[in-house]
Amino acid sequence: MDSLTWIGLASIVVAGLTIGIGAIGPAIGEGLAVSSALSAMAQQPDETSSITRTLFVGLAMIESTAIYCLVVAMILIFANPFWNYFIQQAAQQAGGGG
Q1: Which of 26, 40, 71, 97 is most buried, taking the most CB atoms under 10 A from its CB?
Q2: Distance between CA 19 and CA 96 in Å, rounded?
């Protein structure tokens, strides 16, 4: 394999790791936040609306981390500056070989 193939392979692997690891952290955080909010609502039922509002703001902030990871993965796959050069080189090799 040449260096361009390694760049393409590394981009795909890093994109997969980014979305994989980037989804695990927010999932754990959201689970903990909802668990804590439910415990707080069970202990203080009068404050349910305030706890729910704060919970949704917190969940949005946690979810934004996963969305950032998705955007980085999409940039690595679809907007990688090396891809055009990689595709051009692959086309030249395919055209020259056959």
Answers
A1: 26
A2: 37
Give the tens place of pLDDT for each residue, 35-65: 999 999 999 999 999 999 999 999 999 999 9
Closest CA to 89 of 15, 14, 2: 2
Domains and CATH numbers, the chain: 1-83 (1.20.20.10)
Within 13 Å and on the Cβ side, how many CA atoms surround 88?
5
Rounded-to-integer distance, Cα 18 and Cα 3, Å = 22
pTM of the entire predicted model: 0.68
Residue with tokens 């796959």: 77
- Positive or negative: CA dihedral 83, 11, 16, 60: negative
Q: Which residue reads 């927010």 in tokens?
A: 26
